[in-house]
């Protein structure tokens, strides 16, 4: 009888998962045991500086595209809010509205 730990003899452990350093993330080329491995963002392996640089450029382009889309959607929201405020002013002519500078100490 075993002591000190659990014992499992399931078939799912018979197949080994490929190690993350077995192949290049971009081109899937096998990484040799005695060859250089170029890492990016901590745990992403590449076979060459070229593959690594290509991934960096793709990531930068997608981040730039994401920033542009988020800034354009926020500007659309702010212009919609401005339009809503302008239309509210037209309908609320009976209310007294103060305009001017507010100083907070």
UniProtKB/TrEMBL annotation:
The FLZ-type domain, residue ranges: 19-63
Regions of compositional bias (Low complexity) in chain numbering: 68-80
Zn finger residue spans: FLZ-type: 19-63
UniProt record, GO biological process: regulation of DNA-templated transcription
Keywords: Metal-binding, Zinc, Zinc-finger
GO molecular function term, any single one: zinc ion binding
Pfam families referenced in this protein's UniProt entry, alphabetically: zf-FLZ
Keyword Transcription appears in the UniProt entry: no
Record's compositionally biased regions (Basic and acidic residues): 83-95
Keyword check for Chaperone: no
Region ranges (Disordered): 58-105
Highest taxon, organism lineage: Eukaryota
Xref: InterPro entries: FLZ1/2/3, Zf-FLZ_dom, Znf_NHR/GATA
Family: Belongs to the FLZ family.
Protein name: FCS-Like Zinc finger 1
Lineage: Eukaryota, Viridiplantae, Streptophyta, Embryophyta, Tracheophyta
């Amino acid at each position: 009888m075993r002591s000190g730990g659990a014992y499992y003899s399931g078939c799912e452990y018979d197949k080994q998962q490929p190690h993350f350093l077995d192949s290049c993330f971009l081109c899937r080329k096998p990484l040799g045991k005695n060859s250089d491995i170029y890492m990016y963002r901590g745990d992403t392996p590449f076979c060459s500086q070229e593959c690594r640089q290509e991934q960096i450029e793709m990531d930068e382009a997608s981040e730039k595209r994401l920033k542009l889309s988020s800034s354009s959607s926020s500007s659309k929201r702010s212009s919609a809010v401005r339009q809503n405020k302008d239309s509210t002013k037209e309908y609320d002519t009976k209310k007294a509205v103060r305009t001017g500078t507010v100083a907070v100490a």
